[in-house]
Amino acid sequence: MMNFGYYMPTRLVLGRNCVTEHAELLAPLGKHALIVTGKSSAFNGALNDVLSALNANGQAATVFDRVTPNPGIPCIREGIALLKSAGADFIVAIGGGSPMDAGKAIALLSVQERADSEIFAGNYAPEALPMAHIPTTAGTGSEVTPYSILT
């Protein structure tokens, strides 16, 4: 067996009403959230829960709900443009793997400029905007990894 070490700090909070009951966990992330999501979070109540939690903390929010399945570079660029124009300083991603992957890419590429042709080259520094992920599905595990899958 090969010896190895593994360290990936991720805090998980699970349970009914966990977003609104643990709103204080979002407070240290920043003053203005870019909420990255698809359209379903407005219907399943997750978006309202996040907006309520941010409001309880006195944090502003801008919603980017144009994430489509398997997001591509144009989606990420649109999210970065909205983040910058709104003055957002952290990300809350709501949904399945696609919104969470888009949120991670927006958080990274908003502070580490890359040409579209260089995005998949790797070699990124560890800097990115702070993030929280609110998964509404099970399966991808995107909420616990630092990686983003883009098409």
From TrEMBL:
Pfam families noted in UniProt: Fe-ADH
Under the heading InterPro entries, the entry gives: ADH_Fe/GldA, Alcohol_dehydrogenase_Fe
Keywords of the record, alphabetical order, are: Oxidoreductase
Q: Which GO terms describe its molecular function?
A: alcohol dehydrogenase (NAD+) activity; metal ion binding
Q: Which Gene3D superfamilies match?
A: 3.40.50.1970
List residues of the Alcohol dehydrogenase iron-type/glycerol dehydrogenase GldA domain: 9-151
Family annotation (SUPFAM superfamilies): Dehydroquinate synthase-like
EC assignment: the record states: 1.1.1.1
Judged by the first EC level, this protein's enzyme class is oxidoreductase
Q: Which family does it belong to?
A: Belongs to the iron-containing alcohol dehydrogenase family.
PANTHER family cross-referenced by the UniProt entry: ALCOHOL DEHYDROGENASE, ALCOHOL DEHYDROGENASE 4
In Swiss-Prot or TrEMBL terms, this protein is called Iron-containing alcohol dehydrogenase
